[in-house]
């Protein structure tokens, strides 16, 4: 079976800075894949290349068997890529359900159907009770959920989560983990960028570690965390020697 | 919950119908021509502001150049009528279509601009339009066009003896602009526009084609404003560039919506109902006392309302509406 998402030799340069060099990764259908790495490793750049915010300087991005390298973000959403933002971007003057309806409208243009769909997604994400309040009234962890709900309303095949568990309390983060599992159980593939290792590792099926713009290691989370190269990247040489 | 939503939509529609019916009866009691005149202008500006609100309120692209579309509606109608004998009704539609096409043509480069830069561009373009018409000999240049008097007729949309037909047309136009807004508000376009206003990047990630949304809003907005311009030209029976394309029209379209509640369904109507009579009354009662006093009073009132009610006058009416669904 072919991978749902594949990047083939992707390069991204910003002026003289090389943010991604020759990155080739693949995400299989139904997987939860963690994209990790220290600050400045190029995780967010790769994420934005997949979501369609940037076009890579070189290389190709294949989604569901089709080359989407040059497609705009809206078109990628149409094809089945949903995303959240690291810094939440709620539609602040709209109610919570109206936020989600915007996402639902891409699949159902009949308002009644879109509204119904939005309500179901909110229930699924545990925001049912907050549907009719303005998005600006939500607390930060609820806003993260709203990001997920909005993206799910577009009925994605692949959900891209950008540090959606970072900065939450342990209890909130645990609930977030449960939500991600639930999402996967509905058949959605998940690619998540995180740098809080202890949250991500039990959750993901596979981890891809980026460092200095390149893929450093990839494999099962338990193997990845013990890999000397990963420890070096995160903590420096001294600690790697002990491992 | 969804029932509440449907009920609220229905309630808005019923209130609008009742208000329109009451307004239609007003001339039975108001015989004074001066007051009738104020009513006509109020309805016209309510319609214009409602149309402006589609692009600037819902979609968030603040335009201070809508006088251009107003003028285009007026000029298209009168040029077609005086030069080619085309009935104003057809001229009106032609003006609307031309304005919509121009709005999209201008949107193509300018919708790439954000925030204040977009606002500045709209002002500049409208001023250029004004200068072009002031120098366009065939269109009467600065002298303008006098609409030939052919007697009272609905066919030619010209009435000398009574202002009432104009009143009813203005009421119909205002109702139309309100209804279009009401209808669009709960449609894909309405949701797309609000998403674009709040956060274009997030909107794009949810499949909203931001550029097309802005173009759609601009076209609808310009079309309706041009219809208003055509009406105003027939109402005045004389047009020149300054009297249908001056900057003050851009302001008088924006202010009622801003004051009443920008991006809301009722804001423009409410704002116009207060602002336009206030404008006319301050002008006629203290305007003669020395140039500018009326404008000072007028400006002070606007500042006072904006400070007291930053969300606009609509926030007075329903707490849930002001806090909750911003509409």
CATH level-two architecture of the largest domain in chain A:
3-Layer(aba) Sandwich
The rough form of chain B would be described as globular
The CATH class of the largest domain in chain A, by name, is Alpha Beta
Please summarize the sheet with the most strands of chain B.
2 strands, antiparallel
Question: What gross morphology of chain A would you assign?
Answer: globular
- Give the mean pLDDT of chain A: 91
Number of helices of chain A: 10
Low-confidence stretches of chain B: 320-327
Class derived from helix and strand content of chain A: alpha/beta
Tally of contiguous helical segments of chain B: 14
CATH architecture of chain B: Orthogonal Bundle
**How many E strands of chain A?**
10
User: How are the strands ordered across the major sheet of chain A?
Assistant: 6-7-8-3-9-10
Give a description of the structure.
The complex is a heterodimer of chains A (243) and B (327). Chain A is 40% helix and 24% strand. With 243 residues, chain A is an alpha/beta fold. Chain A folds into two domains: 5-80 and 157-242, P-loop containing nucleotide triphosphate hydrolases (Rossmann fold), CATH 3.40.50.300; 90-155. In chain A, strands 6-7-8-3-9-10 form a six-stranded mixed sheet, with helices on both faces. In chain A, strands 2-1-4-5 form a four-stranded antiparallel sheet, covered by helices on one side. In chain A, helix 3 packs across helix 4. The relative contact order of chain A is 0.17. Chain B is mainly α and 327 residues long. Chain B has one domain (2-323): ABC transporter involved in vitamin B12 uptake, BtuC. Chain B is 74% helix and 1% strand. Chain B has a two-stranded antiparallel sheet. In chain B, helix 2 packs across helix 11. Chain B is globular. Residues 320-327 of chain B have low confidence and may be disordered. The chains are: A alpha/beta (243), B mainly alpha (327). At the A-B interface, helix 2, helix 3, helix 4 and helix 5 of A face helix 1, helix 7 and helix 8 of B.
């Amino acid at each position: 079976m072919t991978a749902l998402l594949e990047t083939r030799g992707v390069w991204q340069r910003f002026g003289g800075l090389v943010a991604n060099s020759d990155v080739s990764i693949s995400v299989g259908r139904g997987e939860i894949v963690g994209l990790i790495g220290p600050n400045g490793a190029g995780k967010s750049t790769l994420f934005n290349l997949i979501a369609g915010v940037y076009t890579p300087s070189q290389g190709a991005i294949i989604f569901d068997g089709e080359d989407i390298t040059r497609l705009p973000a809206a078109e990628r959403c149409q094809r089945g890529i949903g995303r959240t933002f690291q810094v939440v971007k709620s539609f602040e003057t709209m109610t919570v359900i109206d936020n989600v309806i915007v996402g639902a409208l891409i699949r159902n243009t009949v308002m009644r159907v879109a509204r119904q769909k939005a309500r179901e997604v909110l229930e699924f994400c545990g925001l049912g009770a907050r549907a009719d309040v303005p998005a600006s009234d939500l607390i930060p962890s609820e806003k993260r959920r709203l990001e997920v709900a909005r993206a799910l309303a577009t009925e994605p095949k692949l959900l891209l989560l950008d540090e959606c568990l970072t900065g939450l309390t342990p209890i909130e983060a645990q609930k977030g983990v449960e939500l991600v599992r639930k999402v996967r159980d509905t058949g959605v593939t998940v690619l998540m960028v995180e740098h809080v290792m202890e949250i991500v590792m039990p959750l993901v099926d596979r981890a891809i570690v980026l460092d200095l713009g390149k893929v450093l290691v990839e494999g099962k989370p338990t193997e990845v965390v013990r890999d000397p190269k990963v420890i070096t990247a995160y903590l420096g040489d001294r600690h790697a020697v002990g491992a | 919950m969804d029932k509440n939503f449907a009920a609220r939509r229905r309630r808005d529609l019923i209130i609008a119908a009742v208000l329109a019916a009451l307004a239609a009866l007003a001339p039975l009691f108001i015989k004074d021509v001066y007051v009738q005149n104020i009513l006509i202008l109020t309805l016209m500006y309510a319609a214009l502001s409602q149309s402006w609100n589609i692009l600037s309120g819902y979609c968030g692209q603040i335009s201070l150049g809508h006088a251009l579309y107003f003028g285009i509606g007026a000029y298209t109608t009168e040029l077609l009528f005086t030069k080619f004998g085309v009935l104003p009704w057809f001229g009106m539609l032609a003006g609307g279509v031309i304005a919509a096409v121009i709005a999209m043509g201008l949107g193509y480069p300018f919708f790439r601009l954000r925030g204040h830069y977009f606002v500045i561009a709209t002002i500049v373009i409208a001023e250029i339009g004004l200068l072009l018409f002031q120098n366009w000999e065939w269109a009467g240049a600065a002298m303008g066009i006098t609409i030939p008097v052919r007697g009272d007729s609905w066919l030619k949309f010209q009435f000398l003896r009574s202002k009432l037909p104009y009143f009813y047309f203005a009421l119909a136009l205002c109702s139309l602009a309100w209804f279009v807004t009401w209808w669009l508000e709960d449609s894909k376009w309405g949701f797309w526009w609000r998403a674009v206003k709040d956060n274009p990047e997030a909107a794009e990630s949810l499949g909203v084609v931001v550029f097309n949304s802005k173009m759609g809003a601009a076209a609808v907005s310009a079309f309706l404003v041009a219809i208003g311009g055509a009406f105003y030209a027939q109402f005045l029976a004389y047009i020149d560039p300054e009297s249908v394309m001056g900057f003050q029209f851009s302001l008088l379209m924006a202010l009622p919506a801003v004051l009443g509640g920008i991006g809301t369904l009722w804001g423009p109507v409410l704002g116009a109902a207060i602002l336009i009579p206030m404008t006319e009354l301050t002008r006629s009662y203290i305007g003669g006392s020395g140039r500018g006093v009326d404008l000072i009073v007028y400006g002070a009132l606007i500042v006072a309302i904006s400070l007291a009610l930053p969300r606009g006058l609509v926030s007075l009416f329903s707490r849930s509406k002001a806090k909750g669904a911003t509409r």
